[in-house]
Amino acid sequence: MMAYWLLKSEPDAWSWDQQVRKGAKGEPWTGVRNHSAKQNLMKMKTGERAFFYHSGVGRAIVGILEVVRAPYPDPTDPTATFVAVDVRAVEPLPKPVALADIKAEPRLAEMALLKHSRLSVQPVTAAQWKLICRMGGLNGGGSRL
DNA sequence: GCCAACGTTGGC
DNA sequence: GCCAACGTTGGC
């Protein structure tokens, strides 16, 4: 079963543009230090997709990522407790979907982004994924590349 | 094992 | 800059 995800980053710390510059090889998504977030990372499989959400000054879903390496020990974690995955940028949303847009859409009221706003790695349902892709100007559900 | 204090995240 | 949510720490 293909699952969908949402990964959060403050653009000052790691932005979509930086991610794009890493190209097809991708880049380790490190620094997760929360056990719920870790549990979600552990479920990720190569080939699955995730939204890239800018928290803080961005507050919008700006692009689509693909998992290119399954979970492995986070090299930045000295306690060897947490895990990382590698992700690559697939494509930007032609029209970023802002947090305000998500709040204004009743069909997205159950999103983890609203219910658990501090969780940095979140699951997204297939229905939520399709709707946000459409809101963002992607009709192919982020699958056309 | 409980709980107060504290630190961090992230929206506003 | 403020504050709510929430995870972690440490005293008992």
State the end-to-end CA separation: 20 Å
Order of helices and strands: EHEHEEEHHEH
**Largest sheet report:** 6 strands, mixed
- Biggest sheet strand order reads 2-5-4-3-1-6
User: Mean pLDDT, nearest integer?
Assistant: 94
Radius of gyration: 14 Å
Q: What is the tally of beta strands?
A: 6
User: By helix and strand content, what is the structural category?
Assistant: alpha+beta
Uncertain runs are none
Percentage of residues in DSSP E strands: 25-35%
Number of helices: 5
Shape: globular
Share in helix: 10-25%
Can you give me a brief rundown of this structure?
This protein is of the alpha+beta class and 145 residues long. It is built from five helices and six strands, in the order E-H-E-H-E-E-E-H-H-E-H.
Can you walk me through this structure?
- The chain starts with a strand and ends in a 10-residue tail after the last helix.
- Helix content is about 25%, strand content about 35%.
- It has about 140 residues and is an alpha+beta fold.
- The protein contains 5 helices and 6 strands; from the N terminus they run βαβαβββααβα.
- Strands 2-5-4-3-1-6 form a 6-stranded mixed beta sheet.
- The protein binds a DNA duplex (12 and 12 nucleotides) through loops.
Keywords:
145 residues, alpha+beta, six-stranded mixed β-sheet, 6 strands, 23% helix, globular, DNA-binding
SSE topology:
Elements: E1 4-9, H1 16-21, E2 27-29, H2 35-42, E3 49-54, E4 60-73, E5 83-98, H3 99-104, H4 112-115, E6 121-124, H5 126-135
Parallel strand pairs: 1-3
Antiparallel strand pairs: 1-6, 2-5, 3-4, 4-5
The structure holds a DNA duplex (12 and 12 nucleotides).
